[in-house]
Amino acid sequence: MSKAIFTCALTGGIHTPSMSPYLPITPEQLAEHAILAYEAGAAVAHVHVRNPETGQPSPDMELFRKVLTQVKSKCDMILCPTTGGGLGMTPEQRVAVVSTFKPEMASFNMGSMNFAIFPLLDKMKEFKFPWEKQYLELSADAIFPNTFKSMRTFLNIFYETETKPELEVYDAGMINNLAFLIQRGLMKTPVYIQFVLGILGGMAATAENLVFLYESACKYIGEKNFVWSVCAAGRFQMPMCTHALLMGANARVGMEDALSVGRGVPAKNNAVLVEKIIRIAREFDIEPATPSEARKILGLKGLDKVAF
């Protein structure tokens, strides 16, 4: 692959404000980070929003509207809002961003799991906001629900709005889920898969696991039926993305997944993470796809057909 799609995941629902003073919180900060990532070479921004006063993950449609419209007014970046949301959000809250804004693409989680982020407490001594400690603690006993019933409901909304699902696969069983949905005619091919590695409750971030997931997808879905990308948590972000690029995949980096650009070096914005992975890619003659090229690769409907 001479061109790869680079996605920047801006803020996510994992890290809390006490973990980094640079984590973007407000709509203005999120939009600024997205535009800087675009200028650094990212074709896609994966968008979560947060309460601008407390930094807590939020399903507020007006916060999404502010971020999406601000970025769209400045560049032609592909905007991929989350339907994963944050701990405790209902499926209805999570998918509302698709029916409301009809984005070109949105995340789509391929199965239920105990999305466990409580080990982050081991590094925490003080908290800026009361919600942070409880939020992390709750993840030890919280299931991130993505049932076959809710996936069918989500898919109906995605296809009604011509929004491409970006399929988040955390474990091998989720490939089986995807194969089932395709066989039943509920999921249209070609699909866009993102393997997410290094989250407790899912598969560890190893090269062996990445190869296994890719080969499993080829076996059960068909090599010609999917385009794929990889993201990984924490210190595994750059190694796993590099490995994926060498396998012909696309890559996601950003402060949702990692708060450091290197050992002991905090990421002061999302763009520095995009710059690093593109610098690595270019050592192997892999160039970043433009948003226009990414739209063609992924078969997206175009920015003129969104509702923001």
CATH fold type: TIM Barrel
Summed over residues and divided by their number, the pLDDT gives a mean of: 97
Reported CATH architecture: Alpha-Beta Barrel
Query: Largest beta sheet, briefly?
Result: 8 strands, parallel
What do these coordinates show?
The protein has 308 residues and is of the alpha/beta class. The protein has one domain: TIM Barrel (Alpha-Beta Barrel), CATH 3.20.20.70. 37% of the residues lie in helices and 18% in strands. It is built from 10 helices and 14 strands. The strands form 4 sheets. The chain has an 8-stranded parallel sheet with strand order 6-3-2-11-10-9-8-7, sandwiched between helices. A two-stranded parallel ribbon has the order 1-14. A two-stranded antiparallel sheet has the order 4-5.
Topology, pairings included?
Layout: E1 3-4, E2 6-9, H1 27-40, E3 44-47, E4 49-50, E5 57-58, H2 61-72, E6 78-81, H3 91-101, E7 105-109, H4 131-138, H5 148-160, E8 164-169, H6 173-183, E9 191-197, H7 207-220, E10 226-232, H8 237-246, E11 250-253, E12 260-262, E13 265-266, H9 270-283, E14 287-288, H10 291-298
Parallel strand pairs: 1-14, 2-3, 2-11, 3-6, 7-8, 8-9, 9-10, 10-11
Antiparallel strand pairs: 4-5, 12-13
Helix pairs in contact: 1-2, 1-9, 3-5, 8-9
Gist?
The protein is of the alpha/beta class and 308 residues long. The protein has a single domain, classed as Aldolase class I (TIM Barrel).
